[in-house]
Amino acid sequence: MMPTQLKKMGDSHQEATEKEVERILGYLKKYYQDDPTSPILYYEFVIDPNSFSRTVENIFHTSFLIRDGLARMHLDSDRLPCIAPVEEGEVEAGGSSIRKQCIVSISPKLWKEIKEAYDIRNPLIQPSNMQPE
């Protein structure tokens, strides 16, 4: 009986992760559509200035967008990491030939430093109990 319960629990966590990834993709697309010529700075997108744990969750969920080819990262002219959604026609079904990934590490100290350096006062990704406008 226990393995069945664990499998069901695992499935529900996977489904919750998928829903959160889709929700975050919605925010990314909305901000990009609002101003497609202005790059979305990665740290401004994922940092929640009110919660280190939500920031870690945002980084985690955003990583699936990169992995699955739904978003891409690049460096702007100041060599700061930026994120943008991948257009429908650009998404390769299961193709990862040109996709690159990296590891992002963050500590509470670094989180505070980034918040101050980027002057982040409000989260771009609202907590999951709030929806995009």
From TrEMBL:
Could you confirm whether the keyword Nucleus appears in this record?
A: yes
Q: Which GO terms describe its cellular component?
A: chromosome, telomeric region; nucleus; Smc5-Smc6 complex
* Keywords tagged on the record: Chromosome, DNA damage, DNA recombination, DNA repair, Nucleus, Telomere
Output the Pfam families linked to this UniProt entry.
Answer: Nse4_C
Concerning InterPro entries, the annotation shows: Nse4/EID (IPR027786), Nse4_C (IPR014854)
**Residues covered by the Non-structural maintenance of chromosome element 4 C-terminal domain:** 39-125
Tree of life domain:
Eukaryota
User: What start and end residues bound the annotated signal peptide?
Assistant: none
Q: Which residues form a coiled coil?
A: none
A single GO BP term for this record reads: DNA recombination
> Where's it found, cell-wise?
Chromosome, Telomere; Nucleus
Question: Major location, coarse class?
Answer: nucleus
* PANTHER family according to UniProt: NON-STRUCTURAL MAINTENANCE OF CHROMOSOMES ELEMENT 4
Q: How does it assemble?
A: Component of the SMC5-SMC6 complex.
Q: Which family does it belong to?
A: Belongs to the NSE4 family.
Summarize the protein's role. Answer: Component of the SMC5-SMC6 complex, that promotes sister chromatid alignment after DNA damage and facilitates double-stranded DNA breaks (DSBs) repair via homologous recombination between sister chromatids.
Q: What is this protein called?
A: Non-structural maintenance of chromosomes element 4
Biological source species? Eleginops maclovinus (Patagonian blennie)
Q: What is the lineage of its organism?
A: Eukaryota, Metazoa, Chordata, Craniata, Vertebrata
